[in-house]
């Protein structure tokens, strides 16, 4: 007699848990959609600012750089957007000016690579 009642309680509890998980997934997917929409809008705004401050040749060069080194292109874009927002860029940036900016950034962020070669000591090596 207790077994059917216990089974009914378990079934109801499982349905409640499944319902909560389903609603939680819906909330998560809605939050995810909102976040994706915000990212997309931010990227669109970013591209609009870049289109306004860069000539078409400079944008093409920056796009080619982004294919090879996306993090470097993103950094250059960030620098240019910040400069435009602070009013340091008043007219469009030409390809030559972009190249000089890239050279400046390269000299500031140049890493010195150092290679050290260690030979393994062998038992047969004579000292």
Automatic annotation (TrEMBL):
Keywords in alphabetical order: DNA-binding
Positions of the UniProt region annotated as Disordered: 14-42
Biased composition (Basic and acidic residues): 33-42
Keyword Endoplasmic reticulum: no
Pfam families per the UniProt record, alphabetical: dsDNA_bind
A molecular function GO annotation: DNA binding
One GO CC term, this protein: cytosol
InterPro entries associated with the record: PDCD5-like (IPR002836), PDCD5-like_sf (IPR036883)
Protein name: DNA-binding protein DDB_G0278111 isoform X1
Organism: Sesamum indicum (Oriental sesame)
């Amino acid at each position: 007699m207790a077994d059917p009642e216990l089974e009914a309680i378990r079934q109801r509890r499982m349905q409640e848990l499944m319902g909560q998980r389903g609603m939680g997934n819906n909330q998560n997917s809605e939050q995810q959609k909102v976040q994706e929409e915000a990212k997309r809008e931010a990227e669109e705004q970013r591209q609009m600012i870049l289109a306004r401050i860069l000539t078409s040749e400079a944008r093409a060069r920056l796009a080619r750089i982004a294919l090879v080194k996306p993090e470097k292109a993103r950094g250059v874009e960030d620098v240019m957007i910040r400069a435009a927002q602070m009013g340091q860029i008043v007219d469009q940036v030409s390809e030559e000016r972009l190249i000089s900016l890239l050279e400046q950034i390269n000299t500031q962020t140049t890493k010195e690579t150092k290679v050290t070669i260690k030979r393994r000591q062998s038992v047969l090596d004579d000292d």
